[in-house]
Amino acid sequence: MSTVISNAVTALSGNLALAPEGTGVVTVDGLTFPSADGSANQVIKTNGSGVLSFTDAGGGFTQADSQATTSGTLKTFGSIPSGVKMIVVSYFDISMSGDGGAGDAIQLTLGDAGGLETSGYVSMRAQLRSSANILFDDTANFELSDHLAASSKYRGSAILTLQDVAAYRWICQWQTMDTDNAATVNVGAGSKALSAELTQVGFGTTNGFDLGSVSIMYQ
Questions:
Q1: Is position 13 within any domain?
Q2: Mean pLDDT to the nearest integer, 190-204
Q3: What is the mean pLDDT of residues 149-165?
Q4: Band of pLDDT at residue 181, cut at 50, 70 and 90
Q5: What predicted TM-score, i.e. pTM, was given to this entire model?
């Protein structure tokens, strides 16, 4: 290892390049710098022991591609990376096939590598209307809204937060408005403990979609 000690700085008219030979590294004032460049938009971090390395910048959300809800009964967002602790599901002008009625609803499900899980949810939803308020509970999913009429279109968001890392337990809170029934709003909350770390989120309905879109972002 070569060591350069200096108590004076001489002005330079150009750049100063430090290039160790072979497998050597550059160490400045006890900090060891990476021997190769990182990827675009990465930042330098320290391990707390004087070794620096490149890593992805943290603190921001990753936006997944929006999916059209114009057909089918389930839209799945898979490949959610390890370490995610918050997910926001946003949906716009969701419309469902049929004339509405009992059993048809917008349903949010969580899953791990073994698939989406359809049991073990503790979920409560309040439907607030000008004429009456109704409470619903569910153990098969987070029910974001039922389907009141063929013309109903739904807009809203659901926020998922990881409450217990070891138990894989998630908390969900949501609000959904019916644009066709201006006096109808659904609000709810619930929890779900998965069998393993979350890797996917499902957004579905019973009778099928025919309009709208859904997207997620996570961090």
A1: no
A2: 98
A3: 94
A4: confident
A5: 0.75
Cβ(176)–Cβ(165) below 8 Å: no
The answer to the question of residue 20 being in a domain is no
Give the mean pLDDT of the chain.
Answer: 89
Which residues, including other chains, have CB under 8 Å from residue 219's CB and lie 6 or more apart? 59, 60, 61, 62, 84, 85, 86
**What pLDDT is stored for residue 29 in this prediction?**
87
- Which of 76, 138, 75, 69 is CA-nearest to residue 97? 69
Banded pLDDT at 8 (limits 50, 70, 90): low
Q: What is the sign of the dihedral through the CA atoms of 15, 16, 22 and 27?
A: negative
Residues 124 and 31 both lie in one domain: no
Residues 6+ apart with CB under 8 A from 175: 156, 157, 185, 186, 187, 188
Copy the structure tokens of residue 183.
């006096």
In terms of residue numbers, what domain contains 164? 62-218
Distance CA 217, CA 60 (A): 10
How many domains in the chain?
A: 2
Is residue 97 domain-shared with residue 152, that is, in the same domain?
yes
CATH number at residue 145: 2.60.120
196 is a domain residue: yes
Last residue of a domain, one of 5, 39, 56: 56
Residues constituting the chain: 219
Question: Quick one: 70 and 114 in the same domain?
Answer: yes
Which residue has better confidence, 163 or 9?
163
- Identity at 115, one-letter amino acid code: G
Tell me whether residue 76 is in a domain. Answer: yes
